[in-house]
Amino acid sequence: MASNMKIQSSSPTFQGGISSTLRSARQRVINAVPNMELSGNTNWINKAGEKISSAEQRLILGASALMSQPFIDAHNKNVDEKTRKVSVARTIAKIIAGTLTGFAIRKGCIKAIKAMSQPRGANIPKWKSFFTPKDVNKTNTDAFMQYRNAMGTVVALVVMMFTNFLIDAPLTKFLTNTFIKKQENNNG
Amino acid sequence: MANLFSNFKSSLYKNYGENPGKMLVHTGVLGWILSSLAQVSAVVFNDKISPEQKSFLIPQEIADAGINIASFYLITSSFKNVASKLVSTGKLTTKGIKGALAKEDIAKIGKLDFNIGELKNVPEDYKPFKNGVDVIASTVGSIISCNIVTPILRNQYASRKQKQALARMHTNTQLTAPRGISMAQYQRLSSIKYSSGLKV
Question: Does ipTM surpass 0.85 in this model?
Answer without folding.
Answer: no
